[in-house]
Structure formats: structure tokens, C-alpha cells
Amino acid sequence: xxxxxxxxxxxxxxxxxxxxxxxxxxxxxxxxxxxxxxxxxxxxxxxxxxxxxxxxxxxxxxxxxxxxxxxxxxxxxxxxxxxxxxxxxxxxxxxxxxxxxxxxxxxxxxxxxxxxxxxxxxxxxxxxxxxxxxxxxxxxxxxxxxxxxxxxxxxxxxxxxxxxxxxxxxxxxxxxxxxxxxxxxxxxxxxxxxxxxxxxxxxxxxxxxxxxxxxxxxxxxxxxxxxxxxxxxxxxxxxxxxxxxxxxxxxxxxxxxxxxxxxxxxxxxxxxxxxx
Length: 276
Description:
Order of helices and strands: HHHHEEEEHEHEHHHEHH
Largest sheet: 3 strands, parallel
Helix content: 40-55%
Distance between the termini: 49 Å
Number of helices: 11
Radius of gyration: 27 Å
Number of domains: 2
Strand content: 5-15%
Structural class: alpha/beta
Shape: elongated
Strand order of the largest sheet: 5-6-7
């Protein structure tokens, strides 16, 4: 589809050039009308916006909105030789086909297909950080996460799982499994494990992000993560509205006669108990 649209745009560009050179003829106008009907409206809009987009990125600063807040970011930096270096530069294409191929395959940051990110520009107030950890049980890795992120304005957690988790197995006394539990990665087998792993971090905070080194069980790990994040929001609602006592009573009722999931060991510094 993309290449078909690119071909249509290129032929329209050629027809436009022909009419500018030899003048509009009935044949050229008819061919242009037929091709125009085949050009997708969204592609047409992107092409028509090309010059405006170039103008947007040629100014001193770029203005966009995130969650209702206006964000102003300089569009260039200055090199040591005092040369102005723009952060975003559109390619110098004239052919509409080349322009459309670039728009469909790359485009500017913040626009489909988001190859350069989902926001118009990168953050400048935060250094790129990867707080990588994964060892033993979830509590051990959680403590490591809190140690790595202590005093940092943003929490960028990167999770390594043990080979047992990576292969989708549960911890077991079986000889080929037992020795690998928590080895070179964290052991996560249940939702409660995931909740303990990321406890103390607000997973819905824009300054918190989580990446995972995972393969086959990725859908299950994602489900664990989403449930942990949702449970955190429920927990905050419960605390805010004074419902803790009733919820605790209900949990005790559910686990009557059994062991209630708990965080083993002391909470690390900076851990507020969220998620537990």
C-alpha cells in the first residue's frame, strides 16, 4: 500500500511539473484527476502540510502540549564552534513520492509511525539512564532497584529474568530447574512476585518506566506488570478514601487458614510500601 501511494504521489508530481512546463492540457488535467482519486486523504494531508512542518522546525523553539501542559523546547543547540545545530531536519526532497515514502516510513518525532519517538522532541532535563537489575527472588531485585534509583529524579528500571522464567517454567526442586532459580536474573512465577518486584515505585508515574529482557513468556509478564500497576492505583484509592481497614479485613478473610503473600525482609530505603 505504501509503495502504491508513493507511486501515485510521484506521478502526480511529474504531471504537476509537466503542466508547469508546457501548460495545462485536457489530457494532463484528466490524468491528474484520475490519480488524485487514488491518493489516500491522509497522504494528501501529509504532503500538503510539508512546507508548514518545515517552517515549524525552522524556528527558535517548538511548542507542544502533554497532558494539558504547554511544553516549549529549543529547536537547536550550539556547538563548541558556535554553529547552530538543529535537532530535527526534514530531508531536502522535492519529489512528492520521495517525501511521502519518508513520511510513511520515518516522519518527524511525535508523528506516525513514531520511529523517532512518541513525543516531538526528547527530554533534556533527564540524562538517559538504565537501572539494570535481576537477581534472586523479587525482594532482592526490588532492593537493588531502590538502591540504583536512590536520589534520581526518574526511575528507569530494566529487568533481567532468570532462565527458568525466560523458558516459562515455575521454580521447582527438579535438578535441571532448581540450580537456575534466581541465577543471573530475578525469578518471577506469580502476580504477587511481580507486585513485590516493582513495589515502592509508582508504575503510572510519567517519571517511572520499566523495560524487561524477556522472550516467550512476554505476554504473561506484561499481564503481571499491568495488573501490578492497576493494583497500585486501587491501593492509592483505598488509602485516600480511608478504606484500608475494610480491605484488610477482607484480605484476612480470603487467606484465613493460609499464608498471606508478604514481602520477605526489610523494606529498602525510599520504599513507601506501595504495591504491597
